[in-house]
Design brief:
single chain; alpha+beta; FAD/NAD(P)-binding domain; Elongation Factor Tu (Ef-tu), domain 3; 12 helices; globular; disordered C terminus; NAD; FAD/NAD-bd_sf; cytoplasm; NADP; flavin adenine dinucleotide binding
């Protein structure tokens, strides 16, 4: 491929995010070199040299664009001419309302499309360390199994010790699903921390009987096992699974993350709680709260069953469940700008799981927008970000600035996230009535709100495409 390096976009990593990024760059009329280290250097999880190989699951989850945030993201990506969605649709296998694919057919479709595109060159071989200095427009999309030399170079450049450890994630709950007739807002001893107001936590009280039952359930709950290639990676300091803490003794948790000191229940001020579960605001919108100290290896079904025994969380709806696994991702709100560029070296743009999104579709969608940004840069232009009301815009907002820092100093609080309606800005006027004029009741309100958010998202995305993108989405 000829041409000045300033006119060429280099994409490192040909997973879902990198493949989608390369496609979007080329579709915009800009030449791209897509670098993939396999098969020269394999990872612990991959089995083939195919591009966009699916390593954990063949499911892209719900395809319901009206009622589900990931289904909405599917629809938005289709409007933007996504190669990943085109390949998924062409290789779909029966899965009810979900979009599941034939893995081999999916990878083959993506590989052929990228191989056949005249503006895409696929270069096999590992990029060891930072890309060459004359690569002025680079997208790094190497995923959670980034090779050690590149991970070390990124760590040194960012001065962030945030790569290749067990990523401990506490469950995150939709604020509106918490029963505030049981729970209350208060910081321990009413302490005002940085950015706080002395009432920065939601507190859920437990009696001794409830606490003992909860600890017993943690101990007996079914856990997931580490993958073979994860077993030698140590726990990140301060992020022990809650069930591991519970195994150290029945009183460990109530002297740790569930300690009741410095808190008074305004619903019952004369009764001292035996233990208290705290939830901390997780995003700037105030729609999501994480359960403090509850990183876990419990299986998802067990988490929902056990955590809904906590008073105030009986009807909790989870934006994401807890987990603990090896991961490689940046502290993106601090390190990346609104266009996914590394502040310390703006020629480097990041995409996919490295940015702090989770899931195949989410990774590909961030690759998609990174590709569009990079193509605009190559043309000497600047592309406006997609509206915050869209699934793509809300996910991008979480990654680049929608997160809030933890109230306690010294702890890292940004965690990967799947797309969910809790990342969207609240509707200015949520629906209150059905089409026939009768009032919405109970779950009907939730359904109507999701449908209204989805309709607004697609309308706003169509307007953004018309206003800002040169290439027709169907190209």
């Amino acid at each position: 491929m000829t041409g000045l390096q300033s006119n060429i976009v280099h994409v490192i990593g040909a997973g879902l995010a990198g493949s989608e990024a390369a496609w979007q760059v080329a579709k915009s009329g800009v030449p791209v070199v897509l670098h993939e280290m396999r098969p020269d250097r394999m990872t612990e999880a991959h089995r083939t040299d195919g591009l966009a190989e699916l390593v954990c699951s063949n499911s892209f989850r719900s395809d319901d664009a009206a009622n589900n945030a990931v289904g909405l993201l599917h629809a938005e990506m289709r409007r933007l001419g996504s190669l990943i969605m085109r390949a998924a649709d062409a290789n779909q296998v029966p899965a009810g309302g979900a979009l599941a694919v034939d893995r081999n057919g999916f990878s083959a479709t993506v590989t052929k499309a990228l191989n056949d595109h005249p503006l895409i060159e696929i270069a096999r071989g590992e990029i060891k360390g930072l890309p060459p200095a004359d690569w002025s427009n680079v997208i790094v999309a190497t995923g959670p199994l980034t090779s050690a030399p590149l991970a070390d170079a990124i760590r040194e450049l960012t001065d962030e010790n945030a790569l290749a450890f067990f990523d401990a994630i506490a469950p995150i709950v939709h604020r509106e699903s918490i029963d505030m007739s049981v729970a209350w807002f208060q910081s321990r001893y009413d302490k005002v921390g940085p950015g706080g107001n002395g009432a920065d936590y939601i507190n859920c009280p437990m009696t001794k009987e409830q606490y003992d039952g909860f600890v017993a359930a943690l101990m007996s709950g079914e856990k997931t096992e580490f993958k073979e290639w994860e077993t030698n990676t140590p726990y990140f300091d301060g992020c022990l699974p809650i069930e591991v803490m519970a195994e150290r003794g029945p009183e460990t948790l109530r002297h740790g993350p569930m300690k009741p000191v410095g808190l008074t229940n305004p619903h019952d001020p004369t009764t001292k709680a035996y233990a208290i579960v705290q939830l901390r605001q997780d995003n700037k919108l105030g729609t999501l709260y994480n359960i403090v100290g509850f990183q876990t290896k419990l299986k998802y079904g067990e988490q929902q069953r056990i955590f809904r025994t906590i008073p105030g969380l009986e009807k909790a709806e989870f934006a994401r469940l807890g987990g603990l696994h090896r991961n490689t991702f940046l502290n993106s709100p601090k390190l990346l700008d609104s266009q996914l560029r590394l502040r310390a070296q703006p020629r480097l743009r990041f995409a996919g799981q490295m940015t702090g999104c989770e899931g195949y579709v989410e990774s590909a969608s961030v690759g998609l927008i990174a590709g569009l940004y990079a193509a605009a840069d190559a043309r000497g232009e600047r592309l406006a970000s997609p509206p915050a009301t869209t699934a793509l815009g809300s996910l991008l907002g979480h990654i680049t600035g929608g997160h809030i820092e933890t109230i306690e100093p010294g702890t890292r609080s940004f965690q990967p996230m799947n797309i969910n309606f809790g990342l969207f800005p609240p509707l200015a006027s949520p629906p209150t009535k059905k089409p026939d004029g009768t009032r919405l009741r109970g779950n009907e309100k939730t359904v109507a709100k999701k449908q209204a958010m989805s309709a607004l998202a697609l309308a706003d995305l169509d307007r953004w495409i018309a206003d800002h993108l040169r290439i027709a989405a169907a190209a």
